[in-house]
Each structure stands twice: as C-alpha cells, then as structure tokens.
Amino acid sequence: YGTCCKFSRVLFGHDLILAFTFFFLFAHLTATKMARSKRSAVRDPSQLSGKPLSQTLVPSPWSTTTLTTANNSNGAEVEAHYGCDSGGDDEKWVTSPDLICGDLPFTPDIIYNLTTFLLGNPNMNSSHLFRADILFDSLGVLKTPQETERLFSSSSPGRSGGGDAAPPPQSSDPVESIPAKEIPGFELKRTVVRRLIPRNPRLDRALDQTCHFYEGKKTTTTSGDLALSKERSLYVYTPHVSSKEELPFYHPLLRSLAFLYEFERRPCSQPSLSHNGGGQGQAERLGTGTLSLHFCPFPASESFDPVPTRLERTLQALLATHVRLARSTRPSSSTTISQKVCENSDGSNYNPAKDNVIPRHLIQNTYSRLKLTYAADLCRDWVEETEPSKHVFEDLAITAFLMELWRSMYGVVPAAEKKSSTATGRGA
C-alpha cells in the first residue's frame, strides 16, 4: 500500500491517494460487516422444514393437562384459565420442529439470567417498545419504578435540593398476576408482573403481562457407561387480555407464549469444547441444551387465521434473539434459583455502568412527553441544512436527561408541570 501511494503521488497527485484510501477503507468495513453478519447467524435456514408453520404444529408436552386452581399474588384462590376463554376449555399448547433450536452450550442459569434481563428490556425483541415497568416480583428482586426512585434517592441524599419539587410518584392501582397453572413435572419458582411501555403511546397502549418461572424435576438417563442428568426450565408469558382484539400491535396474537429449555449435563469427567460462544465462550462445554418455543393460539374462525405468516416471523425472531443474547449472558456460579437471584440482584439493568444517575423510566417518560409536544413543530420549523429528524430527537433526549437531573439535584420543575399540578390541585 505504501509503495502504491508513493507511485501514485508522483504520477497523479494526491487525488488518487485519497481515492485509494477510501477504497481500502470501504473494503475493510465491508469485510468486517460480512464477518459480523456471519457470526450473528443463529440458525441455519437449511435445517428448517420450509413449510408454513401451521402445517408443522405438534402438541406441546403439557398441552393435555387440565386447569386447576391456584393462588394469585394477593393470596386469593381463583381458577387458572391462563389467558384462555372463561368457558373453562383446556389450553391447546403447540410447538413446531421449526421452533426448536438444539445443540446449545448454555447452562440453565444463563437462560434464567437472560429471561430476567429481558423482563425489563423487551425493546431487545421489539423496536416498538421502550421498556417494561415491573409491577410485582414474588422474589422481590426486580424493582418497581417507585422502588427504583427510592433507591436512587437514598443512594444520593445530596440531590434533594430545595425549590418547587415535583409531587412524589403516585403508585398505580395494583395489578393482580394471572394465576399459575400446575404443570406435571414442574414446580413454580417465581412470578413477575410487568407493564410493556410502547415508544409511541398515541399508536399503541401499554399492556400488562405475567411471567411464571418453572423449574423441572431433574432426571437421570444412562447412555452407555455415562449417566446424564437432564434439567428443564419453563418460562410462560401471558398477557392480561380476554380477547385478541385487546392486544396491541407489538404483541403477538397469542393467548400465551412459553420458552422451554432442556439441558443434558455431562459428567464432570466428560467435558467437551464449546464452539458456539455464549457465557462460556471457548471453555469446556458442560452439556447440551435445547431451546423450544411453545404458544397457545386463539381459536380459528372464518375471518381469523390463528397462525399467520407474520406470527411465524415473530416467533422465529424471538427464538433467534434468545440464542444470540444468551451468547453474551454471564452464567451464575450457583445452581439453585434462590442463589441465582442473590447473584443477580439487578438483572434487568440494560447498562448498569451508565444507568446509575437517573432512573431510566423517568428520562423516557419525559422524553416521550417532550417528543409528543414539541417534535412536530421543531421538525417543521427546522432552518438548518442537516436532517431535522435526527437532531431534533437527539436534542429532546438530552433535554429530557437534563430536566430530570436538575429536578433531582435542585428540585426544579418545568413551568408546564407547575400549571398541571395547579390545575389538578396537587401543588401551588
């Protein structure tokens, strides 16, 4: 390259040098992008059946079990319909060979930690979502927005400056969790209720959802002279709706959705190398896991297809995202659920190194309010030659952060919020 530059400088001057420089830079970036896309490929399309999902569906292992009664988060005994019709019909859980991803190196604690992380960060699966607010956690690990604000306030007492401080956050009406279903071979370990927060509240509404954590009973199988122990974990998501018409656009048209992870642990004397990345990288592979996706569809009708093409793409994307994110999820050093929780006290934090100044939900709420109020006018009246859609939203995000920072440090409240408080009788 150096010889080429010297020769071109003599013959053609600096223009050709610049052209060569851009050419080599473009080639390098293209090669890097191709390498990254190759590494990010989660599933081999040739391993799929190529048939529509509706033609490959098979019953899930627990689909024939009946519904039972259980206690909700408030201790009341209610009938567990688990998102199905109130008529008491049994659930019809189904899956497909195309929704199964095997030969995975991840231990069950990696999938557990990943599930905990995604509970607070559904934006990793859908660009229509901002985040999820935790409303209830039976283990008390994931914090509600009110608990998060109190933790930030107690950790930085010097920020509570004087001035016209905003009124304390009002706790919303309690949301009951959907009762858990008893599944043979599994034991309920945890219940989490969350609220999905959309990016554009004018288009989509928030949605409450219950997630149940199940842990299967360990079984031991013999393969030759080896004794393989099989561990299973099940994560069931159920939206708080009574009909498909109540589901917003960003949520699949399903009664319930579940991830089942089965892991065959090798004996300690028989490790193998892992080449699939993940929390264990190129370390010794402790066993082989299989991740499968199961769902409970709404009943079909003349005007409704319960398994459309869009649903198939969504389920494939969810499965691929789980496998991709599991590669960078750290494992726990312990095996029991309670020990995992102690080691991952803030597992839903997207970026704990940065999201430690102001709670994320406060900044996002202020940003959404500013965007809905001012973005259209700012983009319309933009006088610079640069693209307004980029700079306006970036400036609004910075403004939202500064507003919440100054509110926390000095008790400064915007005039618009003062007027709103006065109108509602909450302030002066």
TrEMBL record:
Bilayer-spanning residue ranges: 12-31
UniProt xrefs under Pfam families: AdoMet_MTase
InterPro entries (alphabetical): tRNA_uracil_MeTrfase
EC number: 2.1.1.211
An individual GO BP term: tRNA methylation
Subcellular location: Cytoplasm
Record key words, sorted: Cytoplasm, Membrane, Methyltransferase, S-adenosyl-L-methionine, Transferase, Transmembrane, Transmembrane helix, tRNA processing
Top EC class of this enzyme: transferase
Gene Ontology molecular function terms on file: tRNA(Ser) (uridine(44)-2'-O-)-methyltransferase activity
Annotated GO CC locations: cytoplasm
Annotated stretches, region: Disordered: 147-180
Catalytic reaction annotation: uridine(44) in tRNA(Ser) + S-adenosyl-L-methionine = 2'-O-methyluridine(44) in tRNA(Ser) + S-adenosyl-L-homocysteine + H(+)
Function statement: Adenosyl-L-methionine (AdoMet)-dependent tRNA (uracil-O(2)-)-methyltransferase.
Similarity comment text for this entry: Belongs to the TRM44 family.
Full protein name: tRNA (uracil-O(2)-)-methyltransferase
Species lineage: Eukaryota, Fungi, Dikarya, Ascomycota, Pezizomycotina
